[in-house]
Amino acid sequence: MTATSPAPAALLAVRNLSKTYRVGHGQRLTAVDGISLSVMPGEMLGLVGESGCGKSTLGRCMLRLTDISAGQVMFEGRDITTLSERRLRPLRPRMQMVFQDSSACLNPRRRVGDLLAEPLRVHPGPDGRRRPAADIDRRMRDLMDLVSLPASALARYPHEFSGGQRQRINIARALALSPRLVVADEPVSALDVSVQAQIVNLFADLQARLGLTYVFVAHDLAVVRQVSTRVAVMYLGAIVEIGPTDSVLHHPVHPYTAALTAAVPRPMVGARPPPPLGGDIPSPVNRPAGCRFHTRCPYAQDRCREDEPALRPIRPGHEAACHFPLATS
Amino acid sequence: MPAPTQPVPPGPWRQAAGRLARTPSAMVALGMLVAVTVACLLAPIYARDVARTNPFQSTVAGTVMLDGREVDIMQPDDNPLHLGLSPIGPTWRATYLLGADSQGRDVMARLLYGGRNSLLISAAAAVLCLLLAATVGIVAGFFGGIVDTILSRLMDIMWAVPVYLFAISLSIVMVSQQMRLGPFVLRADSLLVPVLIIALVYVPYAARPIRGRVMALRQAEFVIAARCLGVPGWRIMLRDIVPNVMTTLVTLGPLLMALALLAESALSFLSLGVQAPQPSWGTIIQDGEGLIYTRPMVAVAPGLAIVTVVLALNILGDGLRDALDVRDGGRRS
Known about the structure:
By secondary structure, chain A is of the alpha/beta class. Chain A contains ten helices and twelve strands.
């Protein structure tokens, strides 16, 4: 299975997906630039990259929370690219999202119990009928248990909780309808480091217990390492390297991934000094010609300035978009 | 983590009420408003039992007992020739406390009766205006697109007309001829006329902030989260957006009432609002205009009443705005 030819069993497949925004003066900002990838059931795909590289937008496109400019999104083998909000609604229970800002995504005027009951009230139960209040109540208690919060939290308001607890509430709400796919959009980046670990562990634990499929968006490689079986590295709206977590993070072949992994502080003896990555990420309104990374690449050659590299296999299941991939040790 | 044994916390409205109660300025303002309102509601009792007058009837030829002396209500002018008549000035006693107007009517009694009309009209106009503005603002903000464009341009057109000019033009039409809407006949001297006019002219002023709030809320992450959960649009509007707009409405309420009170007074002063012989603070000022040099109290008293109430409403509005800000009041800093 490779990223460019999605296997039929893929839970979620994205083909040549692009998302552009009009930014005035006839200019367009390309947040996502023709990405293709597929996510297998039970897989944990980590999406990493600097802020502004389009990883959150890609996550939102996957769940059709924003309109798609070009390309296709397939969920459970079904094309959902152009489905109306109404037609998407029956699919919503199976694809959920955990948002980054744990307080902004909880209505401050509603109690936790009310927020948690909402998806259970609007979607019919397994028997196709409205869930009885007793079922909803039981389900909410189970969910609170699942995320290690006391049932008494249901009577409280979101602002009474800490960031980590609020994120647990968000996770509980996303899991209320037993989804197959969970897109987590930087779910821990707004949290304290000590709390981050707890939430990351919760994600890993839930995956093991419920057999969830994750798309885990993050800019922190240390976080991604724990909850990903596969990692896709994004730069300026495109995937530059994708492959099994260990392969990508320990033996990166794309200079950008190498710079990212080198930026993670870790105990390492005798390692080669990290190539410093200068400058800022270029504007997605005016993307550089050729390789999108050549403006910051320490190894850029003439060819990189003219010719855009496509993703190509480097090792089994490991692809990179680079003309001159780093030698693998 | 709050201990599980703690009682169920109060809702955001009750918390806001608690914060408001701890704001001295807002409580003073509220107290003043309540005092003025209660006093105005007691106007008939004051007129009957204290002032012992009929504030609607001219008593040009009457006399009144003051400290055992009989005093003319209409007295010769103070000028050397004693030409013309001036009404009795403030006696600072139960009868004619603030003096009489040019028709010999008790100013204090009329002030209280006028307050009933002024407060009723401004409160009703504020509520009606908020209802209209909320409908326009929520529909425009939530649906966006062509609906928003049409409603917003309509508001812009109304906005472009100076508010008093607009109100005066409407009043001239409605006061000069009674309106017939199906089975309903709106008489020219009905209090509904100023209520409708004032409510209408201030709709754009209230609709714009409401629309802005709804548009911001539509992009709020908790609304996107609700969409992601598959909550239908109408339910998002009712359960997630409207409750968050309510705070904006409640905050706008007192400010709109203050504006409405000023507009009502202005229209009544121009004889385009409350129609004689019904009093309102605006009409009393008009009555006092001719007496401004000899008996200034006739115009000053209702003027002070307007200033007091408008000031109190503004202070209350500020207090409400601060108290209702969920984020400021929450534990999050």
